[in-house]
Amino acid sequence: MSNLPPLRLTGAKILRDGALQARSLVFEQGRITKGPLPAMDMSGYLIMPGLVDMQSLFFAKQLTSANHSTNTRDMLKRTAHAAVAQGVTTSWITQGWHHPTGSNSPIQAEQTLLSLRALQGTLPCDLRVQLRIGTHMAETRDRLLAMIKAHNVAYCVFAQGAADQFHFHDTLTETPRFLCSLAEAFDTLGVTYGSHGDLDGAAREYYRIIGARVAECPQSVGAASVARACNDPVVLSAREFLAPTLPKDTSVPHLINRGLCDALVSGEDYASLPRAVFALANACIRPLARAWTMVSQKPAEIMGLHDRGTLDYGKRADFVVINESTHEIEATVCAGRLVFASGTAGARLSAARPQSSLAAE
What we know:
By secondary structure, the protein is of the alpha/beta class. Helix content is 36%, strand content 25%. It is globular.
């Protein structure tokens, strides 16, 4: 993992301005730029923006199956390396806050954030935390907000599970007061927040009224349609697109076909993101250029990350080099650093690194 020298990649098809174009990509000091820099031939490849994943369960799955010899830092490192191998340069790992003990407990959430802070600057990609908050956790409000402030957590979703069912119009329950107080605090802190798994339009309407605008993995056409009517972003699972488990009329392919999807997330498997993009293109559901924006530009816009998601001048040099014939990812570059290398393209970029950085590795 080292900084690449200033380069001009030529001969590839570049995703820029909403289309695949035969033009060069120039980058220097971690940014996309212009100029007559040393050229490297990338004929036969696609160069696409780095993937921006708003919800990954890869880390959460490790937590669930971890043995006593596995520590949180090692799991975070493993997560980051799994991400870049699939072209992901920015990822929000989902950490639960909806159980008193175990992998989804407040104490584990605090440990995850402390470990991530300790690893700051050493991971191959930009790893962040999405908190999935159980709507029944009212007694933890002060502890939760203290942690969010201490670690600058910028993304939270409310999740209503089997243990915390409540009637949306029951003003006597403490749950609505808990959620509204969190929403007020989130607005003050600049936290992006939404809801996960809305069952119907009423649930989505409730959450958007309190300010939870992101509709993550809604479970019905009604919920997704309410979000779309209100111009709230709808985020769906790439894994569910590839292998649907819901009934056909509420499945992810059905929602996408109805235009009820803004962005895709990986879920348990980072590989589902690039696979879903090419599957969308192969099925003629979306052109490749447009499908790729669902995993790069759109999620970056939703999360307010204006320095990434496209290959425009001045943006961070986050990009993926893909073999046009095989669709295999052969290189991932994050902020100008070569963080994953495989195949011919990876070998070419590896050879371009300064000898001093190679010796250091």
